[in-house]
Amino acid sequence: VQLEESGGGSVQAGESLTLSCAVTGNFFSINAKGWYRQTPGKERELIAAIVTGGSTHYHDSVKGRFNVSGDNSANTILLQMNSLKPEDTGVYFCWIATWTNYWGQGTQVTVSS
Q1: Which residues partner with 2 through β-bridges?
Q2: What angle is formed at CA 45 by the lines to CA 8 and CA 87, rounded to 5 degrees?
Q3: Cα(2)–Cα(64) distance, rounded to whole angstroms?
Q4: Which of 8, 22, 24, 31 lies 20 to 30 angstroms, CA to CA, from 73?
């Protein structure tokens, strides 16, 4: 199983960015999927997830600004990020939970004020 992120980059505060994750490989089913973020000096944390049934969950710091979605037919996971803030700067990792957890290599997002 491989996960590959794309779409990271450098933006100004208030701008938007969309991250995409392509999931390939063999697995029976995905129980949950989404995005983790690691900011400087902090541990990696889950910021957006889609669980079985389709419900979504967000970290308080991104609620109302980020939107996670998944295209099951194409095995892609998207993260639409709006109203970006400097504190959103970090490395973003896509993630899926099958019988175990898988993460991508990460993509850097830098938001300047």
Answers
A1: 24
A2: 55
A3: 29
A4: 8
Strand 2-6 and strand 101-103: the pairing is: unpaired
pLDDT digits (tens, 9 = 90+) for 35-68: 999 998 899 999 999 998 889 999 999 999 999 9
Among all chains, which residue has been given the structure tokens 């504190």? Answer: 87
Q: Which two tokens stand for residue 104?
A: 């991508």
Question: Which tokens in the block code for residue 19?
Answer: 């991250």
Q: What is the 3-state secondary structure (H, E, C) of 17-31?
A: EEEEEEEECCCCCCC
Contact 11, 111 (CB under 8 A): yes
State the pLDDT confidence band at 74, using cuts at 50, 70 and 90. Answer: low
The angle formed by the CA atoms of residues 1, 92 and 60, to the nearest 5 degrees, is: 120
Q: What is the pLDDT of residue 103?
A: 96
Q: Is the predicted pLDDT of residue 107 greater than 80, yes or no? A: yes
Q: How many CA atoms within 13 Å lie on the side-chain side of 20?
A: 7
